[in-house]
Design brief:
Blueprint: H1 2-12, E1 18-25, E2 31-38, H2 43-52, E3 54-55, E4 58-59, H3 63-77, E5 83-91, E6 96-103, H4 106-117, E7 125-127, E8 131-134, H5 142-146, H6 148-156, E9 158-165, E10 169-172, E11 178-179, E12 185-191, H7 192-197, E13 204-208
Parallel strand pairs: 1-9
Antiparallel strand pairs: 1-2, 2-6, 3-4, 5-6, 7-8, 8-13, 9-12, 10-13, 11-12
Protein name: Lipoprotein
Organism: Flavobacterium salmonis
């Protein structure tokens, strides 16, 4: 998610945002993956920042550049074996950006996330017949956390994961997550500041009913 985070960090100079990772994982290890970056709570500030193209000496990508980055990503991951139905959506009225795709295996999904992060052979998801595991890793410029001026903005921003399964969820290792009443979905929300200091706050091992 390096490019996604780079975009968010630029716009963070003037706005708060929320990143949501949504997965619908099936028993055959295939599934649907959605990544949404949502600036709608501060769309006016975001629009102004993009219009100005620079804030505090940092270049802000314009609408054309954002659209091109998403188009390039779509083209690249569409070539990954086991990945299909890749779509991207840009909403410049509310400033919401969405990536959606289907995966045939977690190996393919791991390759997608590695493409986002510019990493190699990193494992982000594992699963078997009994469990599903998320191993979080969020690349971010080191100087961002050192800037006290950005702390308040980072604390207002959130990272959310929503994972849904075919079978009932028995339990989950992350104490901060919630399981839906129908026991099919696990929800986790953390502040961006906390997660960037400690990525493992988004780690989760989910046990499934046999």
């Amino acid at each position: 998610m390096k490019k996604i985070f780079a975009l968010c960090c630029c716009l963070l100079l003037t706005s708060c945002f929320e990143i949501t990772e949504r997965i619908k994982h099936h028993d055959d290890q295939s599934g649907e993956y959605t990544l949404m970056v949502d600036f709608s709570k501060s769309w006016l500030k975001t629009k102004s920042a993009i219009w100005l193209e620079e804030v505090d000496g940092v270049k802000i990508p314009n609408e054309q550049e954002i659209t091109q980055k998403l188009t390039d990503f779509k083209s690249k991951v569409s070539k990954i074996e086991g990945i299909s139905n890749v779509t991207t959506k840009t909403d410049f009225d509310r400033y919401i950006f969405i990536i959606k795709l289907d995966y045939k295996s977690l190996k393919a999904l791991n390759e997608v996330v590695n493409t986002l992060n510019k990493q190699k052979n990193q494992i982000h998801f594992t699963a078997n017949s009994k469990s599903f595991e998320r191993i979080a890793s969020y690349p971010i410029p080191e100087n961002l956390l050192k800037d006290e001026k950005k702390k308040e903005d980072l604390e207002k921003a959130n990272i959310v994961s929503i994972y849904t399964f075919d079978r009932d969820v028995l339990n989950a290792s992350n104490a901060n997550c919630k399981i839906s009443p129908n026991k099919k979905t696990v929800f986790l929300k953390q502040s961006m500041y906390s997660v960037l200091k400690k990525s493992s706050l988004m780690n989760n091992t989910i046990q499934l009913n046999q």
